[in-house]
Amino acid sequence: MKIYKITIFTLLLFNINLFADFDTKCSILITKRLQSSEDAYKDAILKVKQCSQYDILSVTSFLETSISKVYITDLIEKFCMFDRSIVTILDNNTSNLSCVHRGEQRIERKFPVTD
Could you tell me the pTM of the whole model? Predict the structure, then answer.
């Protein structure tokens, strides 16, 4: 009976650690730059790179839907675990991505330029 209790306690301890890995939220905003010429997406990428593996990336874009789709698709391809992402289009100017950060940016493939 004692071994049974120790086994249950050990399993619960490991499960708590697994759930805890997904508790930290890393919020990123992509907004229009009215007073500067800085690229909002580059700024967002720098912030995403500061997030840790297994953080919940919560990216909110206040840009037009067509631009947000490109940015959010790029973020999913670079930083998200594919099986843990949710994209929401709230209206024409607000989109949201929630996903689990994979820990490091995927390597971009460079294709040769052909003329």
Answer: 0.67
